[in-house]
Design brief:
200 residues, 9 helices, mainly alpha
């Protein structure tokens, strides 16, 4: 009886993993439909950003399933939901990313600081420049708690549950109104996911 239950559990885990892999593959295929547009926009400008990175950011932001695929409304207007077409979203997203990458280069910080600044805003680049010049989870969490959250009204350090493959072993929470301090690591993971699942 025990062997039967164990086999059923193994089968259930296998089926669940297969289903999750199928969903990830579908999301990757959706994001890859933006590849020609991303390539066109990158070719129009002088930017250190590259196609794989922008596609991984689209995957991280929306899986390509919303009009503002790069969630770039706020960087354009200061408000959310002001962009509702994918071309404008990608153009604005690439512009913001490009500005962050050049500023990171100027300040002598690592590329992942520029990626994290896509979520936190460019002042994060100055913060990292003054604190070791390398983006770390500890610094990103500190900036989220002490700078981003209070500016947006969370002065008590209130948190909420946030579960994803990166956060699950790091406490599984974020600060209310504090942005996503896991963001750069999620983009990094999604770069690999995009490469792996785009092969099949």
């Amino acid at each position: 009886m025990f062997k039967f239950i164990r086999r059923m559990l193994v089968l259930a885990v296998f089926l669940f993993a297969g289903y999750k892999a199928y969903l990830i593959r579908q999301d990757v295929k959706q994001v890859m439909t933006y590849q020609p547009l991303v390539r066109e926009i990158l070719n129009e400008r002088d930017t250190p950003a590259n196609e794989e990175l922008v596609l991984a950011m689209i995957y991280t932001e929306t899986k390509g399933k919303e009009g503002d695929v790069m969630q770039s409304s706020e960087s354009a207007s200061g408000s959310t939901d002001t962009i509702n077409d994918n071309e404008s979203s990608i153009r604005q997203g690439v512009q913001t990313l490009t500005e962050n990458l050049y500023l990171a280069q100027e300040k002598g910080v690592d590329v992942w600081t520029a990626i994290q600044a896509y979520n936190f805003g460019p002042a994060y680049i100055d913060f990292i420049a003054q604190n070791g010049k390398k983006n770390t989870l500890v610094l990103a969490k500190q900036y989220s708690r002490d700078t981003v959250a209070p500016i947006l009204g969370n002065t008590t350090g209130k948190t909420y549950r946030y579960i994803n493959p990166i956060s699950i072993f790091q406490g599984g929470e974020l600060y209310v109104d504090g942005g996503n301090y896991y963001y750069s690591r999620q983009v990094q993971l999604n770069l690999y996911i995009m490469k792996i699942f785009n092969l099949f």
